Amino acid sequence: MVAWRRIGAVVAIIVLAAVFLTAWQRADRERLVETNILALIPEGERLPAVEQAVRIMSERIEQRHILLVKAETEAGAIDATAKSATLMRQSGLYETVDEKADPQAYQDIARFYFPARYHLLSQDIAETIDKGQSAALIDATIRELYRPASAAAAQLENDPFLLFGTFLETLRPNGSGAFKLVDGYLLLLNEGQHYALLTAKLAASPFDIGTQKKVISLKEEIAQSDVTVLYAGVIEHVIAGVVQGQKEMQLVGGISVLGIILLLLVVFRSIVPLLGSLFSIGLGVAVGFATCIAIYGNIHLVTLVAGASLIGISVDYALHFFADIFRAQSSWKVENTLTHVGPGITLGLGTSLIGFAAMFFAPLPGLIQLAIFSASGLLAAYLTVVLFYPVIARGLTVRSCPKGLWHAAESWLSWWCGLNAKIAFMVIGLVIVIGGIVSVQIAPSSDVRLLQKADPQVVEVEHQIKTMTGHNLAPQFFLITGMTAEDVRVKEEALLARLRALPDADRPAGWLAISDFLPSDMRQNENLERVRRLADGDAPVIRQLQDKIGLSDDVVSAFYEKLAHAQPVAFEAWLEADLFPEIASLWLPTLKLEDGSTALGSVVMLNTIRDIGAMRQLAEGSNDILFVDNIADISNIFQEYHGQAQLLLVVAYAVIFVMLAFRYGLMGSAYVLAPPLAAAAVTVIVLYMLGEAYNLFNIVGLVLVLAIGIDYTLFTREARDDSISTMIAILMSAASTMLAFGLLAFSNMPALHSFGLTVLLGIIIALFLAPLAGLRDGEAP
Amino acid sequence: MLNRLALILVSFLSFSNLVLAEEDFATELDQIATLVKPSVGLTADFQQERTIPVLSRPLLSQGRISVPRDGEVVWAQDTPYAVVLKFTAQGMTEIGPDGTEHVADNPMVASMGRTFISLLSGDPAALSAHFIVVDAKADEVSWSMILRPKDDLLRVAIQTIEISGHENIDAVTILDAQGGKSSIAFSNYERSIQ
To answer: Is residue A131 included in any domain, yes or no?
Structure first.
């Protein structure tokens, strides 16, 4: 036995070393803990081109940091913005900081487009010409010239209809008219307060821990210089998540660790059980962590938190080991302990592993990672008990159980003994059936937005910024694909025309699209034809204008000359000039299609969508135009897997039932499984009655309830002459589980709240029902 | 930001990089401040003459201008055609003869509008927020100033602005960078009951 343990220990240490070494090599040091909930969803659920576009757009959105600097006066807002921008530049955190218009950039842009001015017309002008409203065109020109404080006069020489100015005016994101420009700064007046807009692009991913810390201190620095700033961007959610997560972890972790330490010390009055338990759990978490890192390179925050909880089951093994002291009291020998508790904890491990194995078959990366983390960690914790506890506990002082605890366990057991086992079993069976019906009926809420509800303050500020600026931080967009650049741009223009034609209530508040900044070749040629129409005919419109305002002959002949030799703007030249990096990044030159070939694509980003149905309709019936709503897509995927996870759980417990039937017989197996199933059923019913969201994380919680609940009943069943010491172990186990995970019910993160509440309810009920497993067809235990 | 592009001025063709030394005209500006009466509540006739090199004849227009409240200027043109333009810090609203309103809220017009409003206030403090004072003269009854816009963009379009007056503004002359010139003369000032 000892030799067997020694070999086992050596093997375990070697495997452990290998796992840690691999983890060390494979660790993604930039992003060790993944916090983006979207990473939990499977890849390849959608078209590759959509995945690719979503990834590119998400990265683009991820690094944006939007600031609205608030002040009482315009000058105050400008001053504060300049200060903030300086601090931001000094921090070295940003690739670009954009707070003030650069007049040079305007000139570059005007200089670039100017030669092709007759190929570039604003929507309004094109329509006016199409309708043959030459009088209106002449009239508009004259009005512009007479208007006081007009800059039009300067343009007349090279552009007698003042067409270019109206085109340049359209070179801004659709729907961004709320801002005015003061000394190069973009200002907005809202409810008596002046706001200046400052946009920046982070140099690194917001998920980079170094970046997060630096942004936090930068924000403190900006706040110190007496500047009020509203912030928006993915980085804000990440920071809030990190700060909140850390706070919660500290609080929940602190209370539960303290509670568990007190519990162990008071009951065992020795330091060894405490150290042993901490060693089991600590090693379990470390191994789970290392295994995930070794496989994935990083670990998701949800896995870490939920997985650490699941490994917490391992404290049960430790508790049963040490509670064995109370069975034998003064005659206790460390060598005999495993003989008594070994089968129970091995069966407990076996059933837990089967439960996790079920999650492993869910085609959901998040669940698989969780299963890997939990299974490996639990196995490690189990091995510490089996391989090392007999050594650790060798010199343990044997103390008697605290009297109160002993009596509590005793009276609880005798209450159950007074019950008719068959009736109790039938009542529990009925509860399980009702719970089963409820869990099928209950509408699962799989809206991913509910699962990752961020800090309400961040959301509030983001909403303010969105309303004021129209910036959209959600990846909702149209994806247009085609075989040539021209093909894509023509399709995009057709889509934009349909967007513009929507009634106000359905139209998005604005959008970003390449063809708003450079029309397709086709449209450019159509534009030139329009302008040529102004020069054609018996009484050309240009001559009419000449007569009206006394335009010089030179200007008119220059107009004809230009029309004869006008060249359009080539798309490649536009990309090359890189005048609008933000717009150019909407161009996706190498999209992979399903059949492996590549295509070209462009994205139309949408601001504040008013009617999502209308957006879907625009893309309907077209293979080349897709409406992508990443969040909704993911919510759908979550919903799909929700059902699968539930089904897998049923399968897992069918397997466990058959397995246990070999040891206890069919009825015995039913007695062992009924209490945890009833605990899960009652939990589902209570969650339903409380109106709680029912989601994937509740299911994970139920897995834990079932796993721990089966441990309780297995130990009760395995305990023969030592049922009271077993009850004490179970009581302590339940107390520690509630301390450790039940506290998560008070978490602000919806995912953790769902999980914690489920565990809290489930464990209380599982604990209450556990002695049923000890009742054998009416016999007293 | 892309929005700012709306402010592009196309007069880059002869962009003048002339930098004028900013001198201190504190005495003159103080004197002007004592001479000029608040513009709110004033109404006056205006006559605008705009000469543009490529046009064979100047563009003439006439009408009434009024400052109904702080930060708002109403330009009511009678000839050669009737139109009412209301300038505010937010932009310009064009009110047709039939009462229809057309709002031009693009930053370019708004920026020009603010310049215009501050010009007509004649208040040196308001003016120096938007302009560099290149020259200023003032005696017991009359004064004149030559200004250049502070805003880089406006500077591309406007070379200098000359403004002169007594207790009210008499004339504003804007020289644009292309050699064009707009002169606005004001007369028949009336103060509405405030």
So the answer is: yes
The string of DSSP letters for A23-55 reads HHHH--TTSSEE--GGGGSPSSSS-HHHHHHHH
A754 located within any domain: yes
Q: Report the predicted TM-score, pTM, of the whole model to 2 decimal places.
A: 0.67
* Structural domains of chain A, count: 3
Residue A428 has pLDDT above 50, yes or no: yes
Residue A221 is assigned to a structural domain of this protein: no
pLDDT of residue A250: 67
Q: Which two tokens stand for residue A446?
A: 């799989």
- CA distance linking residue A513 with residue A174, whole number of Å: 8
pLDDT on residue A147: 87
What residue of B is the nearest CA neighbor of A98?
Answer: B1
Give A45 to chain B, closest Cα distance, Å. 36
Average pLDDT of span A75-99: 90
Tokens for A318, please give them. 């430790």
For residue A123, give both structure tokens: 């929507």
Are residues A706 and A641 both part of a single domain?
yes
Residues of B within 8 A of A580 (CB-CB) are: 2
**Three-state secondary structure of A151-169:** CHHHHCCCCCCCHHHHHHH
In terms of domains, do A648 and A698 share one? Answer: yes
Whether the CA torsion A165, A148, A189, A225 is positive or negative: it is positive
Q: Confirm or reject contact between A552 and chain B (CB < 8 A).
A: yes
| B183 vs B180: CA distance, rounded Å | 10
The alpha carbon of residue A135 is apart from the nearest alpha carbon of chain B, in Å, by 15
Write out the residue range of the structural domain in which residue A280 sits: 1-30+269-400
Phi and psi at B85, nearest 5°, equal: -115, 125
Q: Is the same domain home to A652 and A775?
A: yes
Query: Which range has highest mean pLDDT (A181-190, A618-627, B139-148)?
Result: B139-148
User: To probe the interface with A, which of B54, B92, B118 has the most A CB atoms within 10 Å?
Assistant: B54
For the domain that residue A735 is a member of, what is the CATH number? 1.20.1640.10
pLDDT band at residue A40 under the 50/70/90 scheme: low
pLDDT, chain A, mean: 81
The stretch B105-129 carries a mean pLDDT of 69
Would you tell me the crossing angle of helices A365-383 and A334-360 to the nearest 10 degrees? Answer: 170
Domains of chain B: 18-189 (2.50.20.10)
| Residue A152 contacts B, CB cutoff 8 Å | no
Asked whether the predicted pLDDT for residue A207 surpasses 80, the reply is no
- What ipTM does this complex have? 0.85
Q: Which of residues 78-137 of B touch A (CB under 8 A)?
A: 80, 83, 85, 87, 89-91, 94, 105-108, 110-116, 129
The verdict on residue A148 lying in a domain is yes
Residues A756 and A670 in one domain: yes
Averaged pLDDT for residues A70-91: 90
- CA dist A410 and A418 (Å) reads 13
> What pLDDT is recorded for position A526?
95
Of A400, A419, A452, which one is at a domain's C-terminal end?
A400
Buried b (16+ CB within 10 A) or exposed e, A137-171: bbebbbbbbbbbbbbbbbbbbbbbbbbbbbbbbbb
- Among the candidates A384, A400, A416, a domain finishes at A400
pLDDT digits (tens, 9 = 90+) for A557-590: 999 999 999 999 999 999 999 888 888 888 988 8
In this structure, the answer to whether residues A653 and A733 fall within a common structural domain is yes
Query: How many angstroms separate the CA atoms of A711 and A717, rounded?
Result: 10
Q: What is the pLDDT of residues A335-371, one digit of tens each?
A: 777 777 788 888 888 888 887 787 777 667 777 888 8
Q: Which residues of B37-71 are buried (b: 16+ CB within 10 A; e: fewer)?
A: eebbbbbbebebebebebbeeebebebbbbbeeeb
Among A159, A180, A190, A514, most B C-beta atoms within 10 A, so best to mutate, is A180
Same domain, A374 and A453: no
Kindly determine whether residue A153 and residue B116, on different chains, have CB atoms separated by under 8 Å: no
